[in-house]
Specification:
By secondary structure, this protein is α/β, with parallel strands linked by helices. It has 4 helices and 4 strands; from the N terminus they run βαβααβαβ. A 4-stranded parallel β-sheet has the order 2-1-3-4, with helices on both faces. Strand 1, helix 1 and strand 2 form a beta-alpha-beta unit.
Length: about 130
């Protein structure tokens, strides 16, 4: 992985939002012929879905787009991920708090919210959960 730009997408369970970001980004990078320049992965801040496959809703979207995710299994972010990745991109503020807890802070400024890279910053909502419940 030396010399590659290393990006880790992070959400609560690593079964819907962060795998969606991981595989869409991998696809975009591949379409542009840049696969050798990036290492892209995803992880969870929680332990509850470790080993689980991608959520059926995310799987349906990726299937429709023709993007393979079949080998993906949920895993939890580790403190070592902070050392290993250049950018750790959370889906919401709750993820960011947990990422800080797991990594022991963000002294190098590697943490970012995904939607901060858009013209509509904010949280990526968990599919199926109304904003009022969060």
């Amino acid at each position: 992985m030396q010399g590659k730009i290393k990006v880790l997408f992070i959400c609560h369970g690593n079964i819907c939002r962060s795998p969606m970001a991981e595989f869409i980004m991998k696809n975009l990078v591949e379409e542009r012929g840049l696969s050798t320049e990036f290492h892209i992965a995803s992880a969870a801040t929680s332990t509850e879905e470790i080993g689980s496959r991608v959520h059926h809703g995310t799987a349906a979207i990726l299937d429709r787009l023709g993007i393979d995710y079949s080998e993906k299994r949920a895993r939890q972010m580790t403190k070592k991920d902070y050392q290993d990745y250049d950018m750790l991109i959370g889906m919401d503020e709750w993820n960011m708090r947990n990422m800080n807890r797991i990594a022991g802070g963000d002294p190098e400024g590697k943490f970012h919210l995904l939607l901060d890279f858009t013209d509509r910053p904010g949280d990526v909502r968990i599919p199926g959960i109304p904003v009022i419940l969060r």
